Automatic annotation (TrEMBL):
Residues 8-83 form the Methylated-DNA-[protein]-cysteine S-methyltransferase DNA binding domain. GO terms for molecular function: catalytic activity. This is O(6)-alkylguanine repair protein YbaZ. InterPro entries: ATL_DNA_repair (IPR052520), MethylDNA_cys_MeTrfase_DNA-bd (IPR014048), MethylDNA_cys_MeTrfase_DNAb (IPR036217), WH-like_DNA-bd_sf (IPR036388). The keyword DNA damage applies. One of its GO terms (biological process) is DNA repair. The keyword DNA damage applies. CDD domains: ATase (cd06445). Keywords: DNA damage.
């Protein structure tokens, strides 16, 4: 599991991603003091009930939604915010944050 101070850093960063923008697990990790992309993914999978973090705005390094049980819902939420996917399922580099 991810240390609580790293979880707090990850959640603080994810909370700042604006609607209509996305970032990668790796980019979030680089903004912390020692998290890895895998740790960020683990943190997104284990969000506490009732959270309001925009978890759906974190995607993989190939600019795609990682396949998992919530992937369809993640794509729907991004689409609702105006994020467009190309034919291969990638988002435009123009919507990357920061």
């Amino acid at each position: 599991m991810v240390r609580s101070e790293l979880l707090e850093q990850i959640y603080t960063i994810v909370a700042q991603i604006p609607p209509g923008r996305v970032t990668t697990y790796g980019r979030v990790a680089k903004m912390t003091e020692g998290a890895t992309a895998r740790m960020v993914g683990t943190a997104m999978r284990h969000l506490p009930d009732g959270h309001e973090l925009p978890w759906h705005r974190v995607i993989n390094a190939s600019r795609r939604v990682t396949e998992h049980e919530g992937a369809a819902r993640q794509r729907e939420r991004l689409w609702a915010e105006g994020v467009i996917f190309d034919a291969s399922g990638r988002v435009s580099p123009d919507v990357m944050w920061p």
